[in-house]
Every structure is written in structure tokens, then in C-alpha cells.
# Entry
Amino acid sequence: MKLNPIEQTRLKQEVAKKAVEFVKPGMCIGLGTGSTAALFIEELCKRKLSIKAASSSERSTEAARAGGIEVVSMDEIEQLDLTIDSADEVDPKGNLIKGGGGALTREKIVASSSKEVIIIVDESKLVPKLGDFGLPIEILPFGLKATLKRLEKLGYRGHVRKKGEVLYLTDNGNVILDLEPPPYFENPKKHHETLIAQPGVVETGLFFDLPMRILVAYENGEVTWMKE
Ligand code: A5P
# Structure
């Protein structure tokens, strides 16, 4: 379901506001990346809660620190209490495609280190099958051509992400390959396992088997948990 950009931003704001209610003083929070996560961080800063955060990108770190949140490195924490992040697509089982903002690897590390993960989305992100968005994967720049060739042999084609004329580099100094869906990622686990087994592939934007709940803002004004 397509939404016009103004309406979509309104829904992102609604779900971000709701998500802040789950953050309690003393918690250690994982911060996602992207426009929805940025709105959540903005709301979180307004609350002036005494919390710590670990962040999935330089962008989110900067925004949180500017708003007075103490951001610590992942190595300073044992486990995060709660991670709040968004997604590019959510299927009916709660599997996700992430990485539109290029932070998928750090996002997966942060989410995997969290007792609980709340994914906040506007209803346009809900899809019957994952794939229309494409699939961002993070790749080492070393041997890029060889990695692309190997992936192509396995049937995965895509475009190396660019920022203007130059390669887009992640916070980890790696490249993002935006894969075309074949045509859908109906079995996300299988695709993830095939892709991650290839030398040079750092991480995929397929998220599954994590302690995630999906909070959705709908056009009719409801903000509620996604039901299977
Ligand atoms: C960042 O790498 C992504 O995983 C984002 O979480 C995802 O792309 C959602 O982004 P928006 O909130 O900007 O739609």
C-alpha cells in the first residue's frame, strides 16, 4: 500500500511517539537508523529520561548525543534492554527487509544484543511477501568484482549503491549491494544462509528469528501491534 510522503511522515511520527512509551528510566536502549528511527530519537530526547543507548550508526549517535542521550559503545554493555528500529518491509510472519539506510549490519548486531526489539513502521511497510524493495546486503570492498560474479552465478543480480558518482560506503567502510528480488524472498532464511556463506558478504538485510514485535501506525489513526 502506497502512502503519500506527507501522510507517511505523519504515521512515522505517530508510531515513534507511541514507541517512546516503552522506554523506562534506567534502561539501555538500542537505536536504529533511518527516518523513522530518527523521529523516535527526537521523541526520546524530549523525554529527558535517564537512560543509556547504543547506536547502529554515526547518524543516530550524533542525533542522540545532540539531544542529551548518553551513547555508549556496544562493548560497554552486556545486553540491551530494548531496541527500537524500523524496517523497509515487513511480511505477515514478521520477517523484515532492512538496510535502505545502509546500516543493516550494525542494526542486526544491536537487535541481536537486545532482550526485546520493537520494529516501528507505517502501514505502507506491510507486504504479503518480502522483495519489492529489493534486498540490501553489505559487502567487503576487497574483491568486489569477484564477489559480484560469485553472487551472479547463484542467480543474485543487483546494483552497487552509489552516492552521486562515488561508491556509497557504510559506517564500516563497506559497500552496499541492492539485490533484485528473484522475484520474492519467500524463504528469507534460505536466501540469507546462501548469501552469508559467500566470501566477501558481510551481512544481509533479511531479519528473522529475533525477539521482535512490530508496532504499526495505520492511516485510520490506530497505532497497534501487527497480528499474524
Ligand atoms: C537502515 O539501514 C534501515 O534498515 C532502516 O531502518 C529502514 O530502511 C527504514 O528506514 P525509514 O524509516 O527511513 O523508512
The radius of gyration is 17 Å.
